[in-house]
What we know:
The chain is α/β, with parallel strands linked by helices. About 40% of the residues lie in helices and about 15% in strands. It has one domain (about 60-235): Glycerol-3-phosphate (1)-acyltransferase, CATH 3.40.1130. Strands 1-7-6-2-5-3-4 form a 7-stranded mixed sheet, with helices on both faces. It is globular, with a radius of gyration of 18 Å. Residues about 240-253 have low confidence and may be disordered.
Amino acid sequence: MSIFPFHWWRTVFFLIPAIGVYTVVLGALSIGSSVFGGRGDFGHFCARTWSWLILATTGVDVDVHGRELLVSRKTYVFVANHQSIYDIPIIFWSLPFQLRIIAKEALGRFPVLGWHLRRTGHVLVDRSKPGTEVFRRLANVMHRGLSLVVFPEGTRSIDGRLYGFKKAIFVLAIEAGMPIVPVSVAGSRHVMRRGRLMTCPGHVTLTVHHPIMTEKLSRNDATELAARVQRIIATAVDCDGAKGAPCGMERES
């Protein structure tokens, strides 16, 4: 007879109910605020509060390196690797910018959720065929002083190794003239592995690399840019699970 480990019971009977309460309460406040217009700043405050509560309740400690490389109030596209569903709260809490996600168009079909995402400035994209309308939305995001978060692997890594980066987001960033910031998340897969209904307290390192300017690039440079950003992110992801300063932090301009 198998016995579930302690953290399975903790996840099912404590974390899931607690996170459910955070999500309902803060989600309702965010949706309510979006009715009155604005650019979604209060909704972002709710998202950051939700992120902090999740990390604190789970027992996730995040070390952030390289945040001083960023200029406050500047607009960026933060491109990160994807190891866990915890990556979103980790990034939202660790980066003090007005963040919006670039998500799959399919999310827009969910009742309430799709409407709320669009109302608060998130960008929903059919990654197989980004069109003129998407470029317009990105330009609008940039002019409103909002930054974007995207996971170009398209799925979560099981073993921490990076999958190939889809180039669509890099085409969009180049067309919008938005600087790209590679972000390495190391250790989050140990908090909650893909396909496992169990979370554990853990230590995560988030490394912010030097921004890469895109003004002088063309659409033809998107594939090379995607590969370059993937290489940069991989330099710190190789330290998965390690504490202390990240290894191989590559200087880019």
